[in-house]
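Step 1: inspect the first sequence and its tokens.
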Amino acid sequence: MTMSPYKGKTGVRRLINAFGYSLSGLRSAFRHEDAFRQEVLLAAVLIPTALVLPVAATARAVLLGSVFLVLIVELLNTAVEAVVDRVSLEDHELAKRAKDIGSAAVMLSLACMAVIWAAILIGRPAEHLSWKVQPDVIETSPGCPILVSRAAYRAPAPPADDAAHRGRNGNLPP
């Protein structure tokens, strides 16, 4: 078995080569895959939207992660399809199964993204848990305030006469 001429590189040269291969893969997927181009267009809308939405940093990270997950799964699906087509263009049950499974993975990642965006934007499940987004104003320099939102959890207050909810010192929690 012959060794790949690309496997001998180490250090910074290997990192530079890997970065070049990654860019080549992105260009190839964008050039040859309609679905990837459509998902990149969707990402071009959703990523800036996630960055400007008034949501907590954690919610923003989940929104962005769900968008990148779709792109990652589409790239993997594209790679599987390319390998299957390279092996044979004949109709074969295993080739169909591999392509269908890759397609299902993309569909599930899109559904996951839709549920995440709906839950954060529409469902607002945090409100059901007594989460409140409170804006804070931070003065970085005189006359230049920055608005920052942070989520603060407030547990529902226990009944005042219920001794079971009192702490060790007999006081109710804040």
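Step 2: inspect the second sequence and its tokens, then contrast the two.
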Amino acid sequence: MRRMLVPAGGLMAAALLALPAPALGGGTPPDGAPGTPPGVAPPGPVQKIVIAGVPSGCVRSDFVARISLQPPEPPTGTRGNSSTRVTLDRREIRTTPQASFGVRIRASRLRPGLHRIGVSTTGSVGNVEELRGTKRFRRC
């Protein structure tokens, strides 16, 4: 028979130390990611808005801003994208259900100064705004 030292907490603490790690809440549950309770699916990848093609310096000519949702399709069981709204200085310039698209910015028609491109998405279940993104540029 093996001899067991009783810790300072008494017999209850000794019984807990003798249990295997998954019984204490450690380890990976068999059907989920680490830290998720058993029976609950792990969360999918987080969607984000990417705004590319906006010049970093002072702009004089027109350019195309490329907008994409990453990843383009949400995981199964979540709300998909119903529409993506693009604004320039808080005025809507385009609305589309596409995950990736380009928007022509007519910088030559803008006044000199700082301008803002905003992108927001709404879910297909309702008018709940899910994601937002902004990018600034300067017109000379």
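Step 3: confirm your contrast with the notes below.
The chain has a mean pLDDT of 76. The longest helix spans residues 11-18.
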